[in-house]
Amino acid sequence: MTMQVLRQTTGALLKLDPHALLGAGGEAGVMPVPDEEELVAKVYRRPTESHARKLASMLANPPDDPMAKQGHVSIAWPLDLLRTPDANRWVIGFLMPRAPGRRPLLEFYNPGKRRQVCPLFSYQYLHRTARNLAAAVGAIHARGYVIGDVNESNILVTDTALVTLVDTDSFQVPDHQTGVVYRCPVGKPEFTPPELQGKTFRDIDRAPEHDLFGLAVLLFQLLMEGTHPYAGVYTGEGEPPPVEARIRAGHFPYGPGSTPYRPAPLAPPYVLLAPELRHLFERCFVTGHADPAARPSADLWVNALQLAENALVTCDASEQHRFGRHLSTCPWCERATRLRGRDPFPSREAVGQGLHLASAVPNQTALPSAGAGIPSRPVAATVSAAGVSPGASISPPTSPVASPPPRQATAPARASAQPSTMRPSPGVSPPPVAAPAEFEREVFSPWGAVALAIALGALALPQFHLWLGPLVLVLAVVGWFLTAGAAAASRGLALGALLVGMGVTGNAVYSQVIVRQQQERLARADRQRRAEVAAEVTAAERLVDEVTAGIERFKNEELTEREAEAIRESLRVKLETAVQHADRALARDPRSEQAWVQKARALRLSGDAGAARAAVNQGLMRFPESTGLKEQLTLLLE
User: Fold this and answer.
1) Has residue 377 got a pLDDT over 50?
2) Which of 34, 216, 308, 414 is the most buried (most CB within 10 A)?
């Protein structure tokens, strides 16, 4: 049985098959359109006049698709209305572009599902997916629309990182002629901003900054292996709060503040993200918690994601491992090792051999066959006979028990068992008993006391334990031998000296080991600090150089006001990030000359002359003897 609908623009009568559903929800079903492979029809189960007016507003003001020039549909926007073929001509649905060959966003940011459906989808592709998603959201906001129900199920992705937003008729749509706002009545708590948690959505006009919170959550999940930004291990008391409570409280575990959470053990490290992206995430989840207007716009995300993608480098061990050049080692190699061989981005060879689907858990050693060498008897009966309830833990014997030896059939010796009644024969004297000899008198030897006195004296000189310890130990051994055969007190003193000598020697060796370990630890910490300072300074210098080059291009190009504003905002974010890099470098090493230079450069380019002058003066105060630095900083003020 087919359903007949009328296409509004052409008047063509379309026959739809309700049994050939491509998708269905609580409000409508999606069906293929005969002879129109690029279109699908969405038909409402209970169409209303509100549906008709909302769709008319959407058709009158469609957004600009950012991927239209590439022949891709990023926004599955309504294309035409569908009406009943009777005289009433009720609006019952609409036509929209078909999105074949696409998968839900979840299957790409979830590493387990990604390995199954698209194992060669690299970290670079995830950056591109994030950028295309931000661009599509920006196009929606540019036309005055708000998505409202931002979540992973309304976003489809191709194997080439192209994004399509679907379910667009659920967006919040304003009617510019009547002023009516057709609200979005639904939303998922894990993508809802803190100011809307617990609210009834059908009573609220949403704003773009509400979408920007959900967009940031999706971008975080795309770049952090599916980790939700508010997921973590609860360190407080009681039961862990749900994610909506964490969002409401602003407990972002990766932010600079203190929260009762720490990142999940298997989550990727936060430093995996490019510095520009970390800055925007903290601006959304930390600053934006109290000031929703401070959340980064979609255009800012597009620019930052492009910078981060351009900064990706390839690992020497695997061409599928891409990571930011701000990192010194490949995080994906380390993560594959941590996950016991389960590579988040397997190589082409591994995929070709099917190794990317192998389980990382080692096979368990098989148990011996039940009843091997044991008479057949049910386990429960055996346990019950032993007086142990089934399911209780039974410890195995530590060693086999030998059978007792057979009893010997010998008669006991009764004579030895009875007391002797023999008496000496008359006239025979018993053998004489020797008188007890006198005990020899013990002689006290002073060597034990001397050895102990030297050992105790050595205790008072800890700075000389390293060479006094062996000497005391030798003297104690000599004293022990010299007191052989002497009084027990002398031997005790010598033994005490021996123990003290061993303690002094052991303490000296232990102290040397501890000192050496501390020195090595301090040296490693210093090397790490220097490397971190160098990395921060390099990042700041790179951003300042990019801003300098961008300013030159900005002067020589003709741009629209929107393009110019986007570039200015991008340059401002870069300068803020450069100053943060320089500040972090100075926090680790206040005497880093180049950190002062880069901070002053960034402040000068941002137009904050006062802050730049203050940074120059602080740098000159730190290094009054450095002529080269003085010249560099002085030039910045000219």
Assistant:
1) no
2) 216
Phi, psi of 91 (to 5 degrees): -75, 120
Which pLDDT tens digit goes with each residue over 579-593?
888 888 888 888 787
CA–CA distance, 137 with 435 (Å, rounded to integer): 115
Any residues with CB less than 8 A from the CB of 101 and at least 6 apart, and which?
A: 158, 159
CB atoms within 10 A of CB 130: 27
Query: How far, in Å, CA of 363 to CA of 328, rounded?
Result: 35
**CA gap 221, 230 in Å, rounded:** 11
Mean per-residue pLDDT, 553-580: 79
pLDDT of residue 63: 97
Our answer to whether residue 526 is catalytic in this structure is no
Angle at 480 between CA 479 and CA 481, to 5 degrees: 90
Q: Which helix (H) or strand (E) holds 165?
A: strand 163-165
CA angle 235, 238, 242 (to 5 degrees): 80
User: Closest Cα to residue 127, out of 195, 208, 207, 222?
Assistant: 222
Radius of gyration of the chain (CA): 41
C-alpha separations of 93 from 45, 77, 82, 557 in Å: 9, 13, 5, 46
Which of the residues 65, 80, 149, 299 is marked catalytic? Answer: 149
0.70 surpassed by pTM: no
22 secondary structure, DSSP code: S
d(CA 442, CA 489): 10
Alpha carbon distances (Å) from 494 to 441, 466, 470, 503: 20, 21, 15, 14
